[in-house]
């Protein structure tokens, strides 16, 4: 197997007495999208800034594209693209001027790709928040980076702009770009990422391929308990049944299809309607909350 694009072992980062990253191991491979998730203050930004070569770790080993990103920052910079949370463009320049300032040449195709072609003569200060985020992304990909860091690239975007950004990201992946994404939108990670790590208080709480991480959590069936019925009247199910005070029944099961089959067969025989019935595999939202509960407990 080829060397990983990012290889981190036993990484620790301190701010004075406070240790923000506490022994992180992770690897990101060529062509994959790796999502870094975690609550506010979990250490994502600190970790990403270390990967970008902006800060030296206090302990541990970091290799990005085969080199130490802090010591060899110039080499890393030429091969990576970064989309920061906050960008600072000169407000009076137009979109086309900013792009030209960034990199000489004709960038019509890229402007079109990010749906900014019709805005090329508009001043940056007149762009909407979503258009500004797209301009950020455009500048980051202009140099065709091998490795792209996306820090909350869709925060504040409407659903359509978010979809458009996702399409651009998928296009970059198809071209072989390796991407590290930090996001608070779990559905964004679920939809785009191959692998992920959830950070909690500076440590990796969960990591792995998205499919495996999701498969490790039970699926859920939920419905309103029919009026007048005791929860004990439900048929035997493989999963755990929780009757919530709201009257909702939730079944957490590793045998979704079998339990659903039993439940629906029973409801049919009894002539019962299970109002607001839902059945679904675990989402990253479930994984995220389960992580928090385990850690708090
Ligand atoms: P968010 O989701 O809010 O962006 P994060 O996961 O990116 O959070 P970091 O910004 O890496 O988290 O912060 C990790 C911890 O380090 C937090 O407790 C934060 O308060 C602390 N921290 C960050 N920067 C500094 C600093 N310059 N000096 C001291 N402590 C800091």
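-> sequence recovered:
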């Amino acid at each position: 197997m080829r060397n990983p694009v990012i290889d981190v072992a036993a990484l620790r980062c301190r701010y004075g007495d406070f240790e923000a990253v506490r022994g992180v191991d992770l690897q990101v491979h060529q062509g994959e999208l790796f999502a870094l998730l975690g609550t506010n203050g979990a250490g994502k930004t600190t970790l990403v800034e270390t990967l970008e070569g902006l800060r030296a770790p206090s302990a541990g080993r970091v290799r990005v594209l085969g080199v130490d990103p802090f010591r060899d920052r110039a080499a890393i910079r030429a091969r990576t693209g970064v989309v920061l949370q906050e960008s600072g463009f000169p407000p009076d320049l137009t979109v086309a001027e900013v792009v030209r300032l960034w990199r000489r040449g004709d960038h019509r195709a890229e402007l079109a790709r990010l749906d900014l072609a019709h805005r090329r003569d508009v001043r940056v200060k007149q762009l909407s928040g979503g258009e500004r985020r797209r301009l950020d992304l455009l500048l980051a990909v202009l140099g065709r980076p091998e490795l792209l860091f996306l820090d909350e690239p869709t925060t504040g975007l409407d659903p359509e702009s978010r979809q458009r950004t996702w399409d651009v990201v998928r296009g970059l992946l198809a071209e072989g770009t390796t991407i590290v994404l930090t996001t608070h939108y779990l559905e964004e990670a679920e939809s785009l990422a191959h692998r992920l790590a959830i950070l909690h208080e500076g440590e990796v709480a969960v990591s792995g391929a998205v499919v495996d991480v999701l498969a490790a959590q039970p699926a859920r069936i939920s419905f309103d308990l029919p009026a007048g019925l005791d929860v004990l009247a439900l048929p035997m199910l493989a999963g755990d049944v929780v009757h919530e005070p709201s009257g909702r029944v939730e079944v957490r099961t590793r045998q979704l299809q079998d339990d659903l089959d039993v439940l629906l067969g029973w409801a049919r025989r009894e002539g019962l309607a299970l109002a607001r019935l839902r059945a679904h595999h675990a989402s990253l939202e479930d994984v995220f909350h389960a992580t928090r509960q385990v850690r708090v407990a």
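The pocket of adenosine-5'-triphosphate is lined by residues 15, 18, 20, 38, 40-46 (CB under 6 Å).
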